[in-house]
Amino acid sequence: MKKMLTKRLFALLITLALLGALTACGGKEVPSDGADSNAEEQVKDGQTIYPCTVKSADGSDVTLEAEPEKIISVSPTLTEMLYALDAGDKLIGRSDYCDYPAEVFDVESMGTIQTPDMEKIISLDPDLVLVSDMIDGNFMEKLTSVGVNVLFVDEMGSMSDVYDIMTMMGMVLNKNEKAASCIEEMKNTIAEVEEKVKDLEAPSVYYVVGYGEYGDYTAGGDTFAGEILTLAGGDNISKNNHGWSITLEEIIEKDPYIIILPTYYEEDFVQAPHYCDLTAVKEGRVYAIDNNMVDRQGYRNGEAVRILAEIFHPEAFK
Questions:
Q1: Is this prediction's pTM over 0.85?
Q2: What tens digit of pLDDT does each residue of 209-237 get?
Q3: 316: Cα within 13 Å, side-chain hemisphere
Q4: DSSP sequence for 55-121
């Protein structure tokens, strides 16, 4: 039991750390990360023109003299995006938490997201290092001080910001057409879902991020994950809350019709005191999914909207 609780706490801490302060609205303004009119000047006939300069989320300019061939990503979100853009073969280093797709495990780990092994990174002589807002600021300064290109991409924002980040990454990697194709597929998937569910009654939904003795966490109405629940045609029980916290009393009072949770919570949640008494648990409407499809911004978000919509409105997808 103690081992299971430790595993659950670790999973919760990692999830909350990766989520950070992701907000769909009302959060801090998200820089365009180079995905603005400047992109038009640096892309011609689908090809990036180098030297290519993009603006890092910390406000600094990052200039790439040539197409990067050796990339290290310590952001699970950006690592996924590299593979989505058919640039996974450029990845020579990752973080311990970069776990999708499966082939990423063939790439050497640089350590944690917050404080990766700087000496190891420098020894690999990367053309570009991709980091997110979880990175230690001192780490970035040390890398840039020795001439390493570090691109800080802020993962906060709405679905439209996902498209902006993907466009920027496509330009950096010279994968502009692939980025445009991914964005179009995502938009089409989401539009098809919205059309199918627009006239249907939205079931109340509880998205489990964390629960139990370590606190109750879910996606508030101002979070990116909350936006995905809404796009999928769900009525988020935490839509009027900010951030990720919710109380057990609220959960019991709202008594959601459907519960969505990560696969690693599937067995324990339905047996846990208080939660086992929820109507959705008693009537078998608890569904486990790969939560990274919802929590990480990227290409799989479109698929997440569709999968959730099929759970919320099975009658619309027969």
A1: yes
A2: 999 988 999 999 999 999 999 999 999 99
A3: 21
A4: E-TTS-EEEESS---SEEE--HHHHHHHHHTT-GGGEEEE-TT---SGGGGGSPB-B-SSSB-HHHH
